[in-house]
Amino acid sequence: LEVHGGAEHAARLLAEHVAARPGWSAEVFTTCAQDAATWEDAYAPGTVAINGVAVHRFRSRAGRGADFAAARTAALRDPLGASSAVAARYVEQLGPVCPDAVDAAEASTCPIVAVGPYLYHPTVTGVAKLGSRAVLHAAAHDEPDIRLPIYCETFAAPGAFVHWSDAEQRLVSSLFPATITAPQLVLGLGTEAGEGDAATVRRALDIGDDPYVLCLGRTLDAKGTTMLARFFAASRARRRDPLELLFAGEIVDRPPDAPGIRVLGPVDEATKWGLLRGATALVSPSPVESLSIVLLESWSVGTPVLVNGACRVTVDQCMRSGGGMWFDSFGAFDVALDRMVGRSELRQRLGAAGRAFVERHYTWPVVVDRYARFLERVASTGAGQRGFRHT
After folding, report:
1. SS3 of 57, please?
2. Is the pTM of this model over 0.70?
């Protein structure tokens, strides 16, 4: 419950909602790690029950390798030309190396094993062992790593695929054409607005009545948060208004200090939902996503979004929903922010469109029913028999 990363959080929520479906059960085979930067053991090994799901934890033989930086540099210098040995060393140094979890999944009676994300050692070794029983939730990004030859084998092995978004499916199909004939589903993720009052959060955080935009999630250079802070500082200095930018979430790379920028750090669920309800807009500066959960959460409470135009997935979410705008430069960010702040009717229209989009496609009953029907078809036809896709 303490782990809030996108793919990890999505996996937990899916498992819990599947396990709650009549006639279904779910088990998890995982490491004892809590920190994806080190993969060090934090939990005790063994089996625990979490929200109706049996979670089997296993110690890792190795976490993030001491030579990871060198291994990554060597592998990504020329991803397409990297040798098998160089790519394998990168995946091993990336970690976590946890063969016991993979072996336990293989030995289980589970007819289908959902595996992911694609990048990590347990997935690479897991799909090789599980073969047609594996349903890969790749969480694929358009990044250099995915072009390493070792991942051609990873995407060739599973019996079926589940994608978080249409854009991810298009990326996987373009990089690995053989997957086109595999059973696959564009699923997304369910969302359900939580408790949290905007006025209460304003008082608790001493925000006052000033408007603010919110960036929710890990503050990480690779996720665009440093760029966002610099863009916002320049835009605010030009406008000289009281608008603030709030960062809420785990602090990895601290954004640069500037007037109007507040780094709140991790917040509880009630505070998160209160912040979303009170925000002028949610800003997602990340250039790489396979699905943005925070966009769905923001739309579920009628708050519009502003996203990085370099991210095909979040731009696609905005285009399909009509719930947001995007920027590809400081100038575009500055104009979009002006429009969001200055035009209340625009904010209301975007937020209402986003909320309707979530209610049509991303409520939990809709998502779990879509997922369950797909897995039933995969199981009944024999995972690995190609020829249907389900959207």
Report:
1. strand
2. yes
